[in-house]
Amino acid sequence: MRTKTYDYIIVLKKKNNIRIDGISQLMLFLSVVAFIGTTITKPTYNLLPLFISLLILGWWIFCYLQTKRNVAPSYRLALLFAAIGWYLQKDGIWISFIYLIAAVLEKQVKFPEEIAFDDEEIVINSFPKKRYSWNEVSNIILKDGLLTVDFKNNQLIQKMVDAEVSIQTEKEFNAFVAEQVKNNQ
C-alpha cells in the first residue's frame, strides 16, 4: 500500500477533550461500582471482578497524575479492562461491546485535526475522514493563524491553526491554493 504525500498539512488548534474524558470517567466509575458490587454479592468468592476494578482504578490514578503534569490522559487501557470485566459478567457481553468500541474510538476522537492539501484533493483528518475535490471549493485563505475554506455550496470552515505560520509559508500556501482553485473552476 502506497502512502500519499501531501503538499501542505495544516494542524488545527486542539479541541478541548473534557467532555470525552468525562464520559470515559463516568463509564469507568459505573464499571468499578458494578464489579465491586458483583464481588460483594456473589457467594462464590470470585475475586476477578475486584482485581479488574483495581486495574481500572490504578490506570485512572495514572491518568489523573498525567493531567496534573499537563499531559493529555488516555483512558483506553482502563476502558479495555472494563470491557473484559463486563464480558466476564453474566449477560454483560453487550455492555462489553460498548466499552470495547469506546476504547478503540477514544484515540481517533482525540487525535488533533489536520487538513491536508495536494493537487488532487483536500482531506480533513477528523473522525470520520472527509475528502473534498478542488472543484467544490471557491476560495481558501490562510491569514493570521486562521484557515478559511469557502465551498461553492456556501459551507464555510474557519479554524485556528495550532502553530504560528511564517509570512513566507502563508504566501506560498495561499499561492498554491489559489492556483488549484483557478485550475479547477
TL;DR?
The chain has helices at residues 18-41, 48-68, 76-88, 93-110, 167-183, and strands spanning 8-11, 114-117, 121-125, 130-133, 137-143, 146-151, 156-160. The chain is α+β, with helices and mostly antiparallel strands.
Give a verbal description of the structure.
The chain is an alpha+beta fold and 185 residues long. The protein has 2 domains: 18-110; 113-183, Roll (PH-domain like). The chain is 50% helix and 19% strand. The chain has 5 helices and 7 strands. It has helices at 18-41, 48-68, 76-88, 93-110, 167-183; strands at residues 8-11, 114-117, 121-125, 130-133, 137-143, 146-151, 156-160. The strands form 2 sheets. The protein has a 4-stranded antiparallel beta sheet, with no helix packed on it. Strands 5-6-7 form a 3-stranded antiparallel beta sheet. Helix 1 runs antiparallel to helix 2, helix 1 runs parallel beside helix 3 (76-88) and helix 3 runs antiparallel to helix 4. The longest helix has 24 residues, at 18-41. The two termini are 32 Å apart. The mean pLDDT is 87.
List keywords for this structure.
185 residues, alpha+beta, PH-domain like
Structural class: alpha+beta
Distance between the termini: 32 Å
Give helix and strand order, one letter per element, not per position. Answer: EHHHHEEEEEEH
SS summary, helix count: 5
How many distinct folded domains?
2
